[in-house]
Amino acid sequence: MSAITTIEDLRGLYGEPHELAIKKEMRRLDGHARRFLERSPFVLIGSSAPGKLPDVSPKGDKPGFALVLDDHRIAIPDRPGNKRLDTFENVIANPMVGLLFLIPGMAETLRINGRAEIHADPELLDRLAVDGKRPISALVVAADEVYFHCAKAFMRSELWNPDSLIDRKTMPTLGAMLKDQIGLADETSEIDSALDQSYRATLY
Questions:
Q1: Which of 21, 68, 135, 154 has its CA 20 to 30 A from that of 111?
Q2: Closest alpha carbon to 69 in 132, 136, 135, 119
């Protein structure tokens, strides 16, 4: 196989984008973007740092968890997790991030590209608290590009089609996969039980 390595060859294969695909890009969060964020419970965060592999990390919470601070900035709470900090370490080295917000049942998505900072100001964390529990910190993203992405990927994948949901029992549990991958000595049921207890105790 031969790889395409130049922009000229790439454009020769695909052609130029439709005018609408260029014009739809905004520099701020308009009313439609704000309403989308108010209803979105889930975002994928893409980040990278020199000398490291790129990373995409999921963040999710109740709809509207990403707080709109003004026409250009949003704050994404960081709840307790595995402490790998892949996204945050990348942001310290390179603040450029890409965000993809989803709403279950809606095939269009909202993309926001911009510059991120990590904040732990008490006043901000209070605004992001759930049941009185603050997030550990917040990722504040200043948007440079804001636009809606068309529905084709979700139409092809039928992601929101209930008939496309798998029977969870057809795949191993996370405990079973971890046992095989890293050679844990515990029984699978014990690993799954520990994971379940961790989820319940440290969700917020």
A1: 135
A2: 119
Is the Cβ–Cβ distance between 119 and 72 less than 8 Å?
no
Single-letter amino acid, residue 167: D
CB atoms within 10 A of CB 63: 14
Nearest in space to 63 (alpha carbons), one of 44, 46, 43: 43
Q: What is the CATH number of domain 9-157?
A: 2.30.110.10
What region does 65 belong to: left with phi over 0, alpha with psi -120 to 50, or beta?
Answer: alpha
The H or E element that residue 170 is part of is none
Q: Is the pTM of this model over 0.85?
A: yes
User: What are the extents of the domains in the chain?
Assistant: 9-157, 166-201
Q: How far apart are CA 125 and CA 138, in angstroms?
A: 7
pLDDT of 200 over the 90 cut: no
